[in-house]
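[stage:ingest] chain + small molecule (heme C)
[stage:ingest] validated
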Amino acid sequence: MKKLVISAFILSTTAMLLADGAATYNSKCASCHGANGKTAALGKSAIIAGQSSAALLKKLQGYKAGTLNVNGMGAVMKGNVATLDAKALSEVATYISKLK
Ligand code: HEC
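[stage:predict] done
[stage:export] C-alpha cells:
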C-alpha cells in the first residue's frame, strides 16, 4: 500500500512537471519553435523536438547566462528565458524532449 501511494505520488509529480512545462512552452516558445518543436525558429534555430532534456537544459542555461549564441540569435533566446527560474527551465526542457 505504501509503495502504491509513493508511486502514485511520483507519477502525479511527473505529470505536474509536464503540465507546467507545457504551459510555459505553449505561452512562450511555440510561436517561434512551433507547437511540436519542429520549426526552425526565425529560420535560424535547430529543431528542438526530441533533443535530450539534459542537452536542452544546458542550452537554455547557456542562453540565460548569455554564453550561448549558435546562429547570432542568442540574444533573442536570452530574452525568452530571462524570466524562467531553474525549475521552469528544467520543466520546459523535459516537455520539449518528449515532443514528437
Ligand atoms: C522570438 C522567437 C523565439 C522564441 C519565442 C523562442 N525561441 Fe528558442 N530560439 C530562437 C532562435 C532564433 C534560436 C537560435 C539562437 C542562436 O542563434 O543561438 C533559438 C534557439 C533555441 C534552442 C537551441 C536549439 C539548438 O539545438 O541549437 C532552444 C533549446 C530553444 N531555442 C528553446 C526555446 C524555449 C524553451 C523557448 C521558450 C521559453 C524559446 N526557445 C522561445 C527563437 C525563439
